[in-house]
Amino acid sequence: MLKNPLTLFLYACPMVNMIIGELMKQSGVSFGTSGIRGLSDSLTDRLCYSYVTAFLQYIKELRVSADGDSDAAKERQVAVSGDFRPTTSRIIRVIVRAAQDHGYIPVDCGRFPTPALALYAMEQRIPAVMVTGSHIAENRNGMKFFLPDGEILKKDEEALCCRKIEISEDLFDENGNLRREFYPRTCETDHGAAAQTYYMRYLETFPENCLAGYRIGFLMHSSVSGDILGDLYESLGAEVARFGRVEKFVAVDTESLSTEFLEFVKQWGRAGRFDVIFSADGDGDRPLIFDENGDLIPGDLSGIVTSLFLNADTVVTPVTSNTVLERINRFPKILRTKVGSPYVIAGMEQAALEGGKVIAGYEANGGFLTWTPVPLTENFRMLGFRTPAKKTGLAPLPTRDPAIVHLALLLTSRRLNKPFSAFHTLFPPRVTQNGRLSDYPVSVARAKLQQLQTEENGNYPAASVLFGQFGELTGIDFTDGVRMTFDANHIIHLRVSGNSPEFRCYIETENAVHARRLLHETLAVMDSWRSGSGESFSCNPQHPMKVH
Q1: Fold for domain 5-190?
Q2: For position 535, what pLDDT does the model report?
Q3: Of 8, 200, 236, 510, which one is least surrounded by beta carbons within 10 A?
């Protein structure tokens, strides 16, 4: 299998054994809510090579277990892509080297959105690795791993952590950098197939010129999504004006946008006379949507609208999403999960076993996933379009995808004959906000959450004492952190981030003024728990997620 002479030489060199889980503890680079995340300096070539080695060995074992044959045609390919972070190219180089050393054929798919890479890999039945830190700061990065049938779940992460691997130390220098003489010389490319697969997924499903008459502004910043999504919407008849492209990578968290960012969008909204402004995060799997006034449409609102457009009978979403989902009483089954797409996917998988027919999932960050085929003929008929010639429905895509959200809101706006600003008026009044304390001692946060979960005779004394000023505690949920409901009909939810050392707070109540006050006061309480740091908290909440 290992035919490369250089590879044969390396495997004749002394090998070092290691267990992935121990390597994660030593490096501080571990699995977050979706994929591996860590400081770029900690993501050394040696570390990335080790993780990719474990992943490819895991893929091989899964195939042997399923088919009894690990050398079938095409199954030696692994697709690779990444975002525009400055360290992404270096990590891709290491992935290519690791793949070649283990008998795989790496296929470079260029810089395209995560859902484009995932869809291509699933259609080709090959694994994939996306190099991205998603929305986290520029000084961090990561990798998302995809099996031939979709992104890895928590059970796969656990299996990877237990793996014992061996690598040649001669590949790397004393700092863990891949030695220049071992840089891969060549790499196969997909010749644009990944982008074309994603592009045609929608072009063959949605009616010709269904977006005619819309003027869309697309905020490019440093996302890999702007060109392909802009081209797609233009091909469906819209006018697309791209703006705001930057050379330096900008971390855009769709759940926590700065005041400066929001004002920048509003200025473009006023100047551009757009029907809507779209964008996405760095790796292009979380959508951003602003109405014609430049006001944010939050991800858990767009998720509800998209689920309604798809006529979903089952909706899966994390506990942090707005409870308007239950209040509208439009979905036969709703399942709440922990935060992170692997949990949403596992929930959709369970919903399918329980008989769900059209199963959708979304997150408060805007990411939207589909588990089952979605028939769309009736939707297009009601809009006055004939059934598309090639496909009458949308195939499943069980990874976060912004295009379906953008398209669903555009066509819902068209069907209702209302501007995007009117989406806020369709649902009961609920407002969500969130904030975070960065560089927070994770051990302190976890200890405090454990204290809040302590029960005595059916009561939770710590929760009542520490947050008694906010009202009487009427409900508490430990699905992900601690989610407290009070008699004033508001919710305070605390959890530790899975991506970085942050202590996060989520607020839900019935008006924006109260939400901002609750957020500020709750962050102050959380900050007072720091272990003697004496640091003051910085409140950088996202724009109010208005639903009224």
Answers
A1: Alpha-D-Glucose-1,6-Bisphosphate; Chain A, domain 3 (3.40.120)
A2: 40
A3: 8
DSSP string, 106-175: EEE--S--HHHHHHHHHHHT--EEEE--TTS-TTEEEEEEEETTEE--HHHHHHHHT-EEEEEGGGB-TT
Catalytic residue among 27, 30, 50, 134: 134
Nearest to 459 by CA among 471, 476, 480: 476
What are the tokens at 510? 């019935």
Phi, psi of 307 (to 5 degrees): -60, -40
Any idea where the domains of the chain sit in the sequence? 5-190, 204-426, 430-547
- pTM of the model as a whole: 0.90
Q: Examine domains 5-190 and 204-426 and report if their fold is the same.
A: yes
Q: What is the pLDDT of residues 179-201, one digit of tens each?
A: 999 999 889 999 999 999 999 99
Could you confirm whether 536 is annotated as catalytic?
Answer: no
- pLDDT digits 0-9 by tens, 415-429: 999 999 999 899 998
One of 3.40.50.970, 3.40.120.10, 3.30.70.3270, 3.20.20.70 is the CATH number of 204-426, namely 3.40.120.10
pLDDT score at 113: 96
**Phi, psi of 505, rounded to the nearest 5 degrees:** -130, 135
Tokens of 180: 């220049």
Stretches in the chain below the pLDDT threshold 70 = 1-15, 64-75, 387-389, 531-548
Distance, in Å, from the CA atom of 366 to the CA atom of 346, rounded to the nearest integer, reads 18
Query: pLDDT value at position 398?
Result: 96
Per DSSP, the residues of 414-458 read HHHT--GGGGGGGS--EEEEEEEEES--HHHHHHHHHHHT--BTT
* Residue 516 burial (CB count, 10 A): 18
Q: φ and ψ at 44, to 5 degrees?
A: -70, 165
- Residue 132, Cβ density class (10 Å: 0-12 exposed, 13-18 middle, ≥19 buried): buried
Q: Regarding the domain delimited by 430-547, which CATH topology (the fold level of the hierarchy) does it fall under?
A: TATA-Binding Protein (3.30.310)
Q: What is the pLDDT of residue 390?
A: 77
| Element containing residue 258 per DSSP (H, E) | none
What DSSP letter does each residue of 187-244 carry, written as one string?
A: -EE-TTHHHHHHHHHHHTTSPTTTTTT-EEEEEEET-SSHHHHHHHHHHTT-EEEEEE
